[in-house]
Specification:
The complex is a heterodimer.
Chain A: E1 5-16, E2 19-31, E3 36-40, H1 47-54, E4 62-67, E5 70-71, H2 77-87, E6 88-91, H3 103-111, H4 120-126, H5 142-155, E7 160-164, H6 172-189, E8 192-197, E9 208-213, E10 216-222
Parallel strand pairs in A: 3-8, 3-9, 6-7, 7-8
Antiparallel strand pairs in A: 1-2, 1-4, 4-5, 9-10
Chain B: H1 8-18, H2 20-57, E1 63-71, H3 73-80, E2 85-91, E3 93-100, E4 103-112, E5 130-134, E6 142-145, H4 147-153, E7 160-165, E8 168-179, E9 202-206, H5 207-214, E10 227-234, H6 245-265, E11 270-274, H7 279-320, H8 322-331, H9 335-373, H10 388-414, H11 418-422, H12 434-437, H13 439-444, H14 447-458, H15 460-498, E12 503-511, H16 513-524, E13 529-544, E14 551-559, H17 565-568, E15 572-573, E16 576-577, E17 585-588, H18 589-595, E18 602-607, E19 610-620, E20 626-630, H19 632-639, E21 645-652, H20 657-668, E22 673-678, H21 679-691, H22 693-722, H23 724-733, H24 737-774, H25 787-807, H26 809-813, H27 817-820
Parallel strand pairs in B: 4-9, 6-8, 14-20, 17-19
Antiparallel strand pairs in B: 1-10, 1-11, 2-10, 3-4, 3-7, 5-8, 6-9, 7-8, 12-21, 12-22, 13-14, 13-18, 13-21, 15-16, 17-20, 18-19
Helix pairs in contact in B: 2-7, 2-9, 2-10, 2-22, 7-10, 7-15, 7-22, 9-10, 9-22, 14-24, 15-21, 15-22, 15-24, 15-25, 22-25, 24-25
Classes of the chains: A alpha/beta, B alpha+beta.
Chain lengths: ~230, ~800
């Protein structure tokens, strides 16, 4: 098939005594290389769980996940760490920068463990924060912090960029600029980007929209002509 | 932990269950602190209680009166009339030679009342032997002795020995093996006027046989009606603890009256001794007091570190509950009710810890320490009563420090407005540290190393607590090892270095002039004697001129020749030698400290019934007992009479114990020699006594280990939980578990190194302090610590701290990235 990512009938079940919670209940989808994908759905639908499994941070209870030809669902914990190290870039809702390192150092932290990192200075410049390289996270605004986080993820030169509610803690305009940055990176670097959000309004900017509800895929929509994010209002 | 008005208990239990490790760690360290504090402090009183019980049960005489003229029933009656005296038991104590299988050994013999006598004498018992094996003697041909004698001679119960004195000899059958309250010390039996001069063992025989052997047959005198010794039992003495002042208060008046009686009616011919003139009892008391001194300081260090650990734990706990506290505040709950939950948590943990720790400590420490002393003392197992006042004190200290820490942590948070509390705490701004300015070092460091460096200096509270905790541990170790060094080194310096002589002897009659020369000549004939010097040595009491307090464990020493003295005893201070002056005295170091007397000041010496004033010209380095060295010229000057020599010091070339015994036997043939003592003997005894401190030091070291472990565990725990998001993020970034661990461990290791270095310095001061407080009256400990001890302490500390790292490695593998990254906090 040659699909970049294959998510096949994946289930994640939490058992708490007698109670079974099906966080992900048979999700199947695929993603091509270089696609900008939005996974949308209401709170508690299971989107984050999908992202976590995809990012190698959690194990699936059943089903298979294939990324770039590798069946990561069969990986051991250590192999998953290696997977995360070289193949994945993660952007969190709450940035999760190391408080004790400056912006440039935060990016360098990620770069130093990779095989083929990008130049941290350059990446920081790409996200427009060259002038803030020596500031600590506490001295940066939310948007600036998120951009540093993105730079950190990009510097790893990953195969896949995963973003969990990247604009959740940001205001409308800042959020938009962050999304634009992600999209530009996707196009310019040919990087596969998956964004999780509960805000359906941004769906039009994606190449593919996967709607998840109650742990199941509700619909998969392909946008032939994605809308540039500047033109989206919400 | 939500507060519901009438459900305090339920909430508390739930909270405890949810944070069980934290609760337990506070409980455990409080338990350790209380056990240690209570246990060590209870040891000295327990030791004294145990001995007191033993002495009371076996009716050890409160006062012993000896007289070379003997006592009669009349004398007994007179003493019985003295107020406070409950009973007077006459008896016999004398020196004899015990012969078994052709070997003769000097022994001490005491009489014992044998029941079926019908002689009308009182059969009240005193100084009762404790039967270990066999039976007490039932007739005048039987005797009892101690196990050591049977072992040494290779004989058993049922065998015969012969006791010889100058009044005759008699054969006895050994019917039993006993211990005696008169000899609680296992190896010291006192001096003897026969044989080698040192008693090998004690025996007890019937009164009639004792009279026959000890009292010469004089026509017209009924020797069965004359006694050599009277044992006095005092009325209220039994209920009093022998080792406390209350006992002295009851005994002193009776002792004085007896001494008065001796002075008025018996021309001062009686020797009146109390319990503390018994070498064993006195030595035991000193040993117990020494433990007491250790117990003063050490436990406090524990409590201090325990309080620190509680503070960090509770601070962490309060931080975790920050949002909740904000919510409660917003809902309108008052500060007091919010604080009370944390107060209760800390209170419960510390009370539980105290309740567990106290009984364990009261049982464990006295038993362990006492067992070390059982090598030296024949006593039954230690009594370990529950010491209520100690329990209360230690519980109070523990509870107060723990709850104070909780409340302090709480109050700090509650000063913020509710809204602020409900927002996540703003992360502390990263700051540049000094190291960054040093460009070429900073640039070379990897990022994890940079984070480590910044973290260490950023989290100051944690920095301080780790460093202090580890320093405390190292300090304790240094003190423990150092104590051993100081104590053991003095035996060597005192007995091999300062005392050049190795034999000291005492005369029956002092000699001077021609007599002295003859005496020396006779001794010199012995090939073992290389150098010989006569001296005068007597027990005196000394006080600083102008003050009332007096020291009585002091000896005056006047050598035959001033210049010769240095061949036998080294007088020196700070490596420069001291010559014996003829216009003043030289006193030993500890004595000068105790009297607070410096060079050039004056002291009053009481010798016999004369008191004179002397000038202190110099102070000499000296470690065991107190001495005042005086030239014979000065003696003449201040006492207005020439000195008579009552002893001698000798350097011998004996190379073994066998040769020493041979020499002793030869010398004792001289009719004027009363007793002999080789310094090897004295130093061995002393060393044995110091060795029992080993177990104490072992206990200290173990506790230091426990301390280090708990502190590091706690701090690593807090470190991890506080930075869980940071750790999870890095894990997501793809750091392997090992890299994650070294992220935290690097900080731990550096802090441990800094703490250890600080601790080595702290240990030096702590050691000095403990030495000063642990010394008993008669001993001055060396102030040195061997370099090896520092190395051991450092290595041990790092091992203890490192073990925690190994122990906690699992935490890193178990970090759940998903969970940790969820909260906004």
């Amino acid at each position: 098939m040659g699909r970049f990512i294959e998510f096949n009938d994946v289930r994640k079940i939490y058992k708490s005594g007698e109670v079974e919670i099906k966080a992900v209940d048979g999700v199947t989808f695929s993603v091509d290389k270089g696609e900008f994908v939005v996974i949308a759905g209401p709170s508690g639908a299971g989107k984050t769980t999908v992202l976590n499994i995809l990012g190698g941070m959690d194990f699936a209870s059943s089903g298979s996940i294939i990324v770039d030809g590798n069946e990561i669902s069969k990986y051991t914990a250590r192999q998953l760490t290696t997977y995360r190290r070289y193949d994945i870039g993660f952007v969190f809702q709450f940035y999760n920068l190391v408080q004790n390192l400056t912006a440039i150092e935060n990016v360098e932290l990620a770069a130093q463990i990779c095989k083929n990192p990008l130049d941290p200075e350059q990446v920081l410049e790409q996200v427009g924060l060259k002038h803030r390289r020596n500031n600590f996270p506490a001295q940066l605004s939310g948007g600036e912090q998120q951009r540093v986080a993105i730079a950190r993820a990009l510097a790893k030169n990953p195969k896949l960029l995963l973003c969990d509610e990247p604009t959740g803690a940001l205001d409308y305009n800042t959020g938009k600029s962050v999304l634009k940055l992600l999209h530009d990176t996707c196009r310019s670097m040919g990087m596969t980007v998956i964004v999780i959000t509960h805000n359906l309004a941004i769906a039009p900017m994606a190449d593919k929209v996967i709607r998840i509800k109650n742990g199941k895929v509700e619909s998969i929509t392909i946008n032939e002509n994605p809308v540039p994010v500047e033109r989206i209002e919400w | 932990m939500v507060i519901m008005k009438n459900a305090f208990g339920k909430n508390l239990i739930r909270e405890i269950r949810n944070t069980i490790t934290r609760f337990l760690s506070i409980m455990v360290i409080v338990a350790i602190g209380v056990a240690f504090f209570g246990g060590i402090r209870a040891t000295c009183p327990d030791m004294k209680l145990t001995a007191d019980k033993y002495l009371d049960e076996n009716k050890m005489a409160d006062i012993r009166i000896l007289s070379s003229l003997g006592f009669t029933d009349e004398d007994v009656a007179k003493i019985k009339k003295i107020k406070g005296v409950s009973d007077v038991v006459p008896g016999y104590t004398f020196d004899a030679l015990a012969v078994s299988r052709d070997e003769e050994k000097p022994v001490k013999v005491h009489s014992i009342a044998i029941s079926a006598q019908g002689s009308g004498k009182s059969v009240s018992e005193v100084n009762k032997p404790v039967l270990v094996e066999g039976n007490l003697p039932e007739n005048e041909d039987e005797c009892i002795t101690e196990k050591g004698y049977l072992n040494d001679e290779g004989i058993n119960i049922g065998d015969y020995i012969e006791l010889k004195t100058q009044n005759g000899s008699k054969k006895f059958k050994i019917t039993g093996v006993v211990n005696s309250p008169m000899y609680i010390n296992t190896f010291e039996r006192g001096n003897n006027s026969l044989g080698s001069g040192k008693s090998a063992a004690f025996f007890q025989i019937g009164e009639k046989s004792a009279a026959e052997l000890s009292i010469p047959e004089i026509p017209g005198m009924d020797r069965y009606a004359v006694y050599t010794e009277l044992s006095v039992i005092i009325d209220e003495a039994k209920e009093k603890n022998t080792f406390m002042d209350e006992y002295k208060d009851v005994v002193e008046p009776v002792k004085s009256e007896i001494q008065e009686l001796s002075k008025n009616e018996y021309s001062n011919s009686w020797y009146v001794f109390d319990m503390f003139d018994n070498e064993s009892v006195y030595g035991y008391m000193n040993d117990a007091d020494r433990i007491g001194a250790v117990g003063e300081v050490f436990p406090l260090i524990f409590f201090f570190v325990a309080a620190l650990v509680c503070l960090t734990s509770m601070t962490r706990m309060v931080e975790e509950h920050r949002t909740q506290m904000g919510v409660l505040k917003a809902l309108g709950y008052g500060k007091l009710s919010i604080i009370s939950q944390y107060f209760l948590y800390a209170f419960t943990a510390s009370i539980a810890g105290s309740i567990i720790g106290a009984p364990i400590g009261f049982r464990l420490f006295p038993t362990v320490i006492f067992n070390a002393y059982r090598v030296m003392y024949n006593l039954p197992a230690v009594v370990t009563p529950f010491n209520m006042s100690l329990a209360i004190t230690s519980t109070l200290v523990a509870v107060i420090s723990t709850t104070a820490a909780a409340v302090m942590a709480c109050i700090k948070e509650l000063t913020s407005a509710p809204a602020e509390l409900m927002r996540p705490r703003a992360p502390k701004a990263g700051k540049r540290i000094f190291l960054e300015r040093i460009g070429f070092i900073w640039r070379r460091m990897s990022f994890t190393k940079k984070v480590t460096a910044r973290n260490i200096f950023r989290y100051k509270k944690r920095f301080l607590m780790t460093v202090i905790g580890i320093a405390g541990c190292t300090g304790l170790l240094v003190t423990g090892f150092g104590l051993k060094d100081s104590i053991l080194s003095i035996t060597d310096i005192q007995f091999n270095d300062i005392y050049v002589y190795n034999l000291i002897g005492y005369l029956k009659q002092p000699v001077t002039g021609e007599e002295a020369d003859l005496f020396k000549a006779e001794l010199d004939r012995n090939s073992y004697i290389e150098k010989l010097m006569l001296l005068f040595q007597q027990s005196i009491s000394v006080g600083k001129s102008g003050s009332n307090s007096k020291q009585s464990n002091v000896y005056i020493t006047v050598p035959e020749d001033n210049k010769d003295l240095k061949k036998f005893i080294k007088l020196r201070m700070n490596d420069s030698d001291i010559d014996l002056p003829d216009d003043g005295v030289v006193i030993t170091q500890k004595l000068s400290k105790m009297l607070d007397v410096k060079k050039g000041e004056y002291i009053d010496i009481t010798l016999g019934d004369k008191t004179v004033q002397c000038k202190v010209r110099d102070i000499t380095e000296h470690y065991v007992w107190h001495y005042i060295y005086m030239s014979k010229q000065y003696y003449n000057q201040i006492f207005n009479m020439p000195v008579k020599f009552n002893g001698f010091a000798s350097i011998t070339n004996t190379a073994s114990q066998g040769q020493e015994e041979e020499l002793s036997k030869e010398l004792m043939k001289n009719s004027n020699i009363n007793s002999l003592n080789f310094t090897t003997n004295i130093s061995d005894n002393f060393r044995k006594s110091m060795r029992s401190l080993d177990s104490v030091i072992f206990v200290l070291i173990l506790s230091a280990a426990a301390l280090a472990f708990v502190v590091m565990y706690n701090l690593t725990n807090i470190n991890i939980t506080e930075r869980i998001r940071e750790l999870a993020t890095i894990k997501v970034l793809g750091f392997y578990d090992k890299e994650l661990a070294s992220y935290i461990y690097r900080e731990n290791i550096i802090l441990s190194l800094i703490g250890t270095a600080a601790g080595l310095i702290l240990g030096i001061f702590l050691h000095k302090y403990v030495i000063a407080t642990t010394e008993t009256d008669i001993v001055m400990f060396g102030r040195n610590i061997n370099s090896v001890s520092f190395i051991y302490s450092a290595i041990l500390t790092l091992i203890f701290a490192g073990t925690v790292n190994v122990f906690m490695y699992g935490r890193f593998t178990r970090i759940n990235m998903v969970e940790s990254l969820k909260s906004a906090e």
